């Protein structure tokens, strides 16, 4: 069999993606399907029944992750393809679900072409990747990889006070710990880029080398509250003015550190937030991401040096590290397979990094793992305008199919 000539059914892929989007579709053609919600239960039921109709065996683990397996002729660790079915509120039709439906389409293509795999093929749906209802993100894959404590995660509550464990039980998807993913020949995750690079460079495929390292801090600036109309400017200890100085320095210093460094001040809270009162406290977040651990270390050192910058305004600055994650490099052999498949299919491609977190970064500590990106229109994601064309989706799944066949032929 010539691997490059076996292609997926693009129209079937299109129809299946739209069918999955029906579970939680919004008026503006987005999707709201929060983890362990009723819509999540319904889409899980549909996924399960669809897989069983294809002859796959479906198992559920203790975190609600779903594993649908096409048996192989030999008892070997499976090739695993998948992502997640949960979304953010008013999210898009492609984030996560594309990776799961890709697994379905790969299996369907193999079955209809009479390919009996030597190695089992498993389609996975990871529970609560988004963390939109229950924090943190990538919860289930984090538990499976030993990054999070299971007991602690089961007690995490949503905005209504419902625990993750209770919600999982309510939708009927509490399985056995013995069903967790423990080994695999390879794990492949197809995902939309969620950024503008592939579209800007007119490329069809991004072969992901790593998920970048990142660190996040909370910075608290403390001054004194006084009357806004009676306190002279040279006698103020204005926490917001001091924060402005900090932000200007952050933009200047980090902006010149490395062109691939991305950094964000995503949250700023000003107290007491009264227009006639000089702010006595400002609390803001600062995070940065880069693949080079030395660059991340330089960022961390810089943040720890910020307190002295508050002195000009008579303010104190306190820095607290909230969390940190190291760069996760994917398995080079699997990355090479994806790259070779893209090239053999004639698809324009490049190697790139992921600035966003994905389940694959946790699972990479357990099994050989790699990721594939397809373009996002205008770089948009986590919104109803999220769009990847059907042709772009099809190309991504074709690369997965080709890589799967390459792994089967080894």
UniProtKB/TrEMBL annotation:
The keyword Cell division does not apply. Its cofactor is Zn(2+). Signal peptide: none annotated. It comes from the Bacteria. Zn(2+) 2 binds at residues 95, 130, 382. Binds 2 Zn(2+) ions per subunit. InterPro entries: Amidase_Cbmase, Bact_exopeptidase_dim_dom, Peptidase_M20. It holds the Pfam family Peptidase_M20. The keyword Zinc-finger does not apply. Keywords: Hydrolase, Metal-binding, Zinc. Zn(2+) 1 binds at residues 84, 95, 191. GO terms for molecular function: hydrolase activity, acting on carbon-nitrogen (but not peptide) bonds, in linear amidines; metal ion binding. PANTHER family: ALLANTOATE AMIDOHYDROLASE, ALLANTOATE DEIMINASE-RELATED. Belongs to the peptidase M20 family. NCBIfam families: hydantase (TIGR01879), PRK09290.1-3 (NF006769), PRK09290.1-5 (NF006771). This is Zn-dependent hydrolase. It comes from Bacillus salipaludis.
């Amino acid at each position: 069999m010539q691997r490059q000539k076996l292609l997926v059914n693009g129209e079937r892929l299109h129809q299946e993606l739209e069918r999955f989007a029906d579970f939680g579709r919004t008026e503006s053609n987005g999707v709201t399907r929060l983890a362990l919600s009723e819509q999540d239960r319904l889409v899980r039921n549909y996924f399960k029944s669809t897989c069983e109709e294809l002859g796959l065996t479906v198992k559920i683990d203790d975190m609600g992750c779903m594993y649908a397996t096409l048996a192989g002729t030999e008892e070997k660790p499976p090739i695993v393809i998948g992502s997640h079915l949960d979304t953010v509120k008013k999210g898009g039709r492609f984030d996560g679900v594309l990776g799961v439906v890709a697994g379905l389409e790969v299996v369907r293509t193999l079955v209809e072409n009479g390919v009996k795999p030597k190695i089992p093929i498993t389609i996975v749906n990871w529970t609560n990747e988004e963390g939109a209802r229950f924090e943190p993100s990538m919860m289930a894959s984090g538990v499976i990889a030993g990054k999070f404590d299971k007991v602690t995660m089961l007690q995490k509550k949503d905005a209504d006070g419902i625990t993750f464990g209770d919600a999982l039980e309510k939708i009927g998807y509490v399985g056995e710990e013995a069903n967790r993913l423990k080994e695999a020949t390879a794990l492949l995750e197809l995902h939309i880029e969620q950024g503008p690079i592939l579209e800007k460079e007119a490329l069809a495929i991004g072969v992901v080398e790593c998920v970048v390292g990142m660190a996040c801090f909370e910075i608290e600036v403390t001054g004194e509250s006084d009357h806004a109309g009676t306190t002279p400017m040279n006698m103020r200890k204005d926490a917001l003015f001091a924060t402005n100085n900090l932000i200007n320095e952050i933009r200047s210093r980090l902006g010149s550190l490395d062109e691939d460094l991305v950094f964000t001040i995503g949250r700023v809270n000003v107290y007491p937030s009264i227009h006639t009162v000089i702010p006595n406290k400002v609390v803001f977040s600062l995070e940065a991401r880069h693949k080079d651990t030395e660059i991340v270390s330089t960022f961390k050192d810089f943040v720890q040096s910020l307190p002295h910058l508050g002195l000009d305004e008579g303010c104190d600055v306190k820095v607290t590290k909230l969390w940190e994650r190291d760069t996760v490099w994917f398995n080079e052999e699997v990355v090479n397979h994806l790259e070779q498949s893209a090239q053999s299919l004639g698809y324009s491609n490049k190697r790139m990094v992921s600035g966003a977190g994905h389940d694959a970064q946790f699972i990479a500590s357990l099994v050989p793992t790699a990721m594939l990106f397809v373009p996002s229109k205008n770089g948009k994601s986590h919104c109803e305008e999220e769009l990847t064309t059907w042709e772009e989706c099809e190309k991504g799944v074709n690369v997965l199919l080709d890589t799967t066949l390459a792994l089967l032929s080894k």
